[in-house]
Amino acid sequence: MNQTLAEPGARLELGARLSQTAREIETVLAALLPLPAGPERRVVEAMRYAALGGGKRLRGFLIVEGAALCGAPRSGALRAAASVEMLHAYSLVHDDLPAMDDDDLRRGQPSCHRRFDEATAILAGDALQTRAFEVLADAATAEDAAVRCRLITAFALASGADGMVGGQMIDMEGEKTRFDLDQVRRLHALKTGALIRFSAEAGAILADAPVAVRDSLLAYGRDIGTAFQVADDVLDATAPAEVLGKTAGKDLAAGKSTFVSLLGIDGARAEALRLAQAAVAHLGSFGPEADALRALAVHMVERKS
């Protein structure tokens, strides 16, 4: 790994870039979720609460950076970033429901079903998901209809039964049985990794970039997606709830198999670093214009929340 990317100055520069991009994404999100005047206002309030209530915006950042790397317009990239953040927010709303992980805390605030009610939270999640696809289907995201179709197809594959939803089902099954390391890898490749892989590739799709470029970014996304989850397991085992912004230690309490339970904390940290190094290696065909993505790989494993 390029060691300069792990130095404090590089991390500080990445932090400023992440913050700036997050603000841009949130501005677009707010504009895409206007409050109506009718009785449906309550569900839109819940949608905005879930989508605008903080978060790292790492998935959206990946789209914006990938688009810049490949020469796609920033305006469309920000809309795609807002779309993936809506879908991610929907997944968190449903994940926190009593029928799923039954969590009262999300991003340091009451979960959506606690702030509103369960029925409203379910509807808000449903509406965030459909709005996400509506935004991608709009010509304002990409003028070329073929590009939009490719984007929507990749998004659907990442978020459905072959991706995030399938991973959530496996995760729930994990409360009943012990998984080995390969099974845990597959679980998180679907539940967490699929949407991160899509986000890494989406900028290249928007730019109609060559297949080789898409494949490089997809492989990068695959490895940082797993690194992100390994680091998340370490944080779940070591950081308090007030730092995480969500209930700590829930996987351990539920008896789920995790990277930490299988590898130990030190082993999991080493695995996260190995994956970050592998992710950076996939960017070898790019020059300094990919340094933000290289630095992000380091950030994924060094983050504290």
How would you describe the overall organization of this protein?
Keywords: Isoprene biosynthesis, Magnesium, Metal-binding, Transferase. It is an enzyme of class 2 (transferase). Its cofactor is Mg(2+). The protein has one domain (3-302): Farnesyl Diphosphate Synthase, CATH 1.10.600. Helix content is 71%, strand content 1%. It has 15 helices and 2 strands. A hairpin with a 2-residue loop joins strand 1 (105-106) and strand 2. The longest helix has 28 residues, at 211-238. The two termini are 23 Å apart.
- Distance between the amino and carboxyl termini: 23 Å
Q: Could you state the CATH homologous superfamily?
A: Farnesyl Diphosphate Synthase
**Averaged pLDDT, please?**
91
Q: In percent terms, what proportion of residues is strand?
A: under 5%
**Unreliable stretches:** 1-6
Kindly summarize this structure in a few lines.
It is built from 15 helices and 2 strands. It has 305 residues and is mainly alpha-helical.
Descriptive key words:
two-stranded antiparallel sheet; (2E,6E)-farnesyl diphosphate synthase activity; metal-binding; Prenyl_diphosphate_synthase; EC 2.5.1.10; 305 residues; mainly alpha; dimethylallyltranstransferase activity; 71% helix; globular; Farnesyl Diphosphate Synthase
Sequence-ordered SSE layout with sheet pairings:
Layout: H1 8-32, H2 41-52, H3 58-70, H4 74-95, E1 105-106, E2 109-110, H5 112-115, H6 118-137, H7 145-159, H8 164-173, H9 181-191, H10 193-206, H11 211-238, H12 241-244, H13 250-253, H14 259-281, H15 291-302
Antiparallel strand pairs: 1-2
EC number: 2.5.1.1, 2.5.1.10
Protein name: Farnesyl diphosphate synthase
InterPro entries: Isoprenoid_synthase_dom_sf, Polyprenyl_synt, Polyprenyl_synt_CS, Prenyl_diphosphate_synthase
